[in-house]
Amino acid sequence: MTLLDALADALQRALASTPGEEALPAAVMWPDALGAWSSLVPLLRERLPGLLSLGDYDPESGRGPALWLRCAVDGTLASSPVPEGTTPILHLPGVGRSTLRVVEALPPDLVALADLPFRGTVFGPEGGKDWTPLSFLLNARDGLGLDVARDTATSEALARALPVFAREDVASMKGKRLDAATFDGLIVEDPARDVLRWLDDPEGFRAESDDARWTTFAGVARVRYGVDPEADGPLAAARKLGEAEGAWTAVWDRFAETPSSYNAVPDLLEKAAPATLGGLFGAQAGRWPQVNDDAEDALRDALLKVGGLPAEEAAPRVAHLDAEHGPRRGTAWAARQRAPLAVALDALVRLAQATDRPLSGDSPEALALAYADGGHAADGAVMDALAAVSRQPDLDAVASAARALYLPWLDAHARRLQELAGDTPPRPDLPGDLPDGTAVLFVDGLRADVGARLAEALNACGLDVERAHTWAALPSVTPTAKPAASPVAGRLGPGADPPPKFATALPDGKALTIDRFRSVLADAGIEVLRAPETGSGSGAAWTETGEIDSAGHHHELRLAHRLPDLVERVTERIEALLSAGWTAVRVVTDHGWLLVPGGLPKHPIALALANDRWGRCALVKQDADVSGLPVVPWHWNADVRVALAPGVCAFTEGYTYTHGGLSLQESVVPTLTVTRAAGEGGHPVLEDLRWVGFRLRVYLSETGGAVTAELRTRAADPASSVASPASFDDAGSAALLVEDDRLEGDPAVLVLLDADGRLLLQHDVVIAQP
Questions:
Q1: CA distance 461 to 661
Q2: Which class for 12: exposed (0-12), middle (13-18), buried (19 or more C-beta within 10 A)?
């Protein structure tokens, strides 16, 4: 993905939008008051043939005055510059969005375009401004979401480097601070990069180079790299790149740094490779993509064979494979996602090491502590290994090897826990009183290893996390365990006998529906917040987020691919709650889960013995003989018996992901208490807000250090600002002026930022309304 790709996609999305949603727009108007995009328009026309530009009459270049553009839109030109069935996109350099908005004030040379903004759509960000290259790079929602310095020098350097930067891989820019030096570095002479750009697109590189630049490049290529771009061509150069001798070593190193920036180079290397690759060893062999692909095929077959080995033989075999294939994780092919099995092998090695160390404990509590204190690393390694691969044959191979290593360890610890627990298993800790300013965030299916990932993500955001663990209520299914994890557990009861679907009830026996559950919370003085509500920040609150459990049931093994996004959503929710003024967010869950590559083994139970049967648990009928199975009392009524599948078995076939039984993964669940990291001066405390016309006056009782106020339409998006940032004076007050009076009555978000631009607090407001 490059800037050109993203810009073309954004314009395509604008093509599909129209106010009435009944027909395509007559045209897409692209205001560009500063003409900042003009250098990219010729490049974009290759992707968007309907793109025309306002300017001097030059139909071959798709450029002309306003009347010519209007005729092109209406289809009245003798020779249309717009392909049939294509909606025109009109780039308007020197014309801003504000100019188009007031028809009566249009300059005479633009009158022909007067009605097009109403018949079509205007391409631009929310807030009524023009897209500029800087705002598009910064915008996280509709642009690229990059970290770009906002000083004059950076803006000027970006303008100079825009045609070059537009072709750079955006992924390589993520997580970096882009400033004037970054953009200037793109246009400083860089022979290695120029060679790679030429190899990646010989015709395009020649077309964008003037004669002087091309002559200089060709001379450098002949003298420094021993290849004549015109006489030898790219295949000869690709052979030298793969051999990487002499000056070509630096060219290869540059390619290996960001191989995703040069999509055509791998194909060239394949075509240019020596006829015999089998005799090559070490680094030179690793440069040819065929060698890597053959190694991946061999590794896939080897991992499938690991799946047929006992664990004591599988672990050393995985270690041997890692010694052979592990070095490929540092190659350009791994960076291009062409070595996923080599990447997965790293996690399989960690899995082998984790499962080689049985967890110790002579009581359920001791075993749970060992698991919560790091034993869940085996579960996390399985998820990492599965996440590294996406193609089904690769997933099958990794799953096969993971099962051989994981299943014996998993089952042994489940049986040990069931043996130690007997018929009186541990119960969850009773929820205590909630301190003022605490929001409880329920995350369905937050297993211990995922809780550890979440804690790491929160720490990376500068938040403090206090980690603990407790037990899930049995059986470990949501209807039983979620109410038990709530702060109103003491107000609930068992309900009907036998309980349908293990459901909890109100004291009067009525089934606990979601609406009744919320009513119980409200009666207990606990504010119920539905996302994205953040509440008042005072008292106590209950809210829910996350789709981990539903994603597991739906995606099974491919849950591993979803986890990073799911953890990020929970992180964002916690940050939003803390920014709204909550002192602490307490994260709770109902249960964990088992995810077993290849499926859970089956241990049948007779239907005649159970009133209700789930994958890992069954409601035992009165006087039924279920000897040989673990039997525990139902959490909400000790007289109700629940049969559990032994070990990590399931009562029926076909389960890869499930829960409901008694195992460390299902039953030992994390609780996290998240607070802002203590810093100099503490956290800013909002005392009062007052609108005086279109000026918002903000008063803090505590500033907590250097704090800046901004007014945005989206809290996390700096490009959505609708007022200039303001600093606080010594008295803790600041004023934000909204200059656009058309925004009156629109919702906005007041955000307070620290000196590094991190979000400290956010508060919803309505512009110019008390």
A1: 35
A2: middle
* Mean pLDDT, residues 75-95: 90
CA angle 595, 596, 598 (to 5 degrees): 135
Which of 13-17, 103-107, 252-256, 500-504 has the lowest average pLDDT?
A: 13-17
C-alpha to C-alpha distance for 459 and 748, rounded to whole angstroms? 28
| H or E segment to which residue 604 belongs | none
Other Cβ atoms within 10 Å of 653 Cβ, number = 11
Sign of CA dihedral 544, 550, 555, 556: positive
- What's the rounded Cα separation, in Å, for the pair 399 and 386? 7
Q: How far apart are CA 721 and CA 750, in angstroms?
A: 10
Distance, in Å, from the CA atom of 728 to the CA atom of 534, rounded to the nearest integer, reads 24
Rounded to 5°, angle at Cα 218 from 216 and 221: 110
| 8 Å CB contact between 442 and 548 | no
Query: pLDDT tens, 684-736?
Result: 778 889 999 899 999 987 765 678 999 998 887 888 899 999 998 888 899 99
Q: Say if CB 137 and CB 178 are below 8 A apart.
A: yes
Q: Does the N-terminal peptide bond of residue 49 adopt cis geometry, omega within 30 degrees of 0?
A: no
In 580-705, alpha helices (H):
664-667
Task: Look up the pTM and report it.
Answer: 0.70
What are 615's strand-pairing partners?
A: none
To 5 degrees, how large is the angle CA 20–CA 25–CA 29? 120
pLDDT in tens, 399-416: 999 999 999 999 999 999
3-class secondary structure per residue, 215-268: HHHHHHHHHHHCCCCCCCCHHHHHHHHHHCCCCHHHHHHHHHHCHHHCCCHHHH
Q: How many CB atoms lie within 10 A of CB 179?
A: 17
Residue 446: partners with Cβ closer than 8 Å, 6 or more residues away:
454, 546, 548, 587, 589, 592, 669, 670
Q: How many CB atoms are closer than 10 A to CB 315? A: 21
Select from 656, 661, 650 the least CA-distant residue to 604.
650
Q: How far apart (Å, rounded) are the C-alpha atoms in residues 94 and 401?
A: 62
- For residue 547, give every residue at least 6 positions away whose Cβ sits within 8 Å of its Cβ, in sequence order, or none: 444, 566, 569
Q: How far apart are CA 292 and CA 278, in angstroms?
A: 12
Written as one letter, the residue type at 660 is G
d(Cα 350, Cα 381) in Å, to the nearest integer? 6
